[in-house]
Amino acid sequence: MTLPISFEFFPPKTPEGATKLRAVRQQLAAAQPEFCSVTYGAGGSTQAGTFAVVGEMLAEGMEAACHFSCIGATRDGVRAQLAELRAMGVTRLVALRGDLPSGGYGAGGQFQYASDLIEFIRAETGDHFRIHVACYPEMHPQAKSPQADLQALAAKVRAGADGAITQMFFNADAYFHFVDEVRALGLQVPIVPGIMPITNSAGLLRFADNCGAEVPRWMRLRLQSLGDDAAAIKDFGAEVMTRLCERLMAGGVPALHFYTLNQAAPALVL
Residue 95 burial (CB < 10 Å; 0-12/13-18/19+)? Predict the structure, then answer.
């Protein structure tokens, strides 16, 4: 594959998970990703784990992008974290508002939107960081309207974002239509499709429902018909995602970003 690709990991919770993730990264390094990102828990709850994984990846010679959320954050706290990341050698961030922790703890803080965070990062660090942001081809579930969601992305770009990575989707037409709408606003940043592997039907459907991503009826029915046949689900998932990626590539996407779920095989479908 000549198209740039990137992979996303989450910080493991156990020593066994950390060992497994190192092996996964070693396998995926053969695909020569442009960078790999590491997620950040609600309210920054996994900050130590996120920074630790990012540090390991940098030591392995891998370009690392740290997720960075602002729910409940203060300017002094963000300033200190940015200084720590710079000292580590991090040059990419995925800047997010972030989800509220369960129970709502962590709300408030000095940043209301991701655009506020991006503006602050630019004011503090200039062009040191390449800043990626999130976007939603099928609308953020908390957005008031598709137009409001587009304006939220526009605010992030105007605050200094360099590019956007989409939430997962399974309808290529939704992505292409979204890009057309973004371009109609005069925004020229790359919109990179986020690709979610299909390895577990119940988990996938639950996550899709939570984040507002549409799973086509034919896919739902097929997954339901496969029951608990893990091998059949993985085979079906590989076929679906390969076709989606091929269509996206034929349509001229700038890159592909894979949500690995800390697994190597599903992300190597192409």
Answer: buried
Q: What is the DSSP string of 97-116?
A: --PPPGGGTT--SS--SHHH
84 belongs to the catalytic site: no
Retrieve residue 19's tokens: 């060992």
Q: What is the pLDDT of residue 107?
A: 57
Terminal Cα distance for the chain, rounded: 8
Distance (Å) of CA 251 to CA 90, 137, 201: 32, 15, 28
Among residues 8, 34, 60, 214, the one annotated as catalytic is 8
Q: Does residue 242 contact residue 270 with C-beta atoms inside 8 Å? A: yes
Query: Which are the contacts of 71, defined by CB distance < 8 A and separation ≥ 6?
Result: 42, 43, 44, 97, 98, 99, 100, 101, 106, 107, 109, 111
The residue among 192, 122, 111 whose CA lies nearest residue 161 is 122
Instruction: Give dist(CA 96, CA 40) in Å, integer.
Output: 9
Q: Please state, as a whole number, how many other Cβ atoms lie within 10 Å of the Cβ of residue 202.
A: 11
C-alpha distances (whole Å) from 179 to each of 133, 251, 254 are 15, 11, 11
C-alpha angle 158-93-215 in degrees, rounded to nearest 5: 85
Average pLDDT over residues 10-34: 95
DSSP designation for 138: T
pTM higher than 0.90, yes or no? yes
Give per-residue pLDDT as tens, 196-220: 999 888 888 888 888 888 999 999 9
Q: What stretches of the chain adopt beta strand conformation (E)?
A: 5-9, 35-38, 64-69, 92-96, 130-135, 163-168, 191-195, 256-259
Helix (H, G, I), strand (E, B) or coil at 51: helix
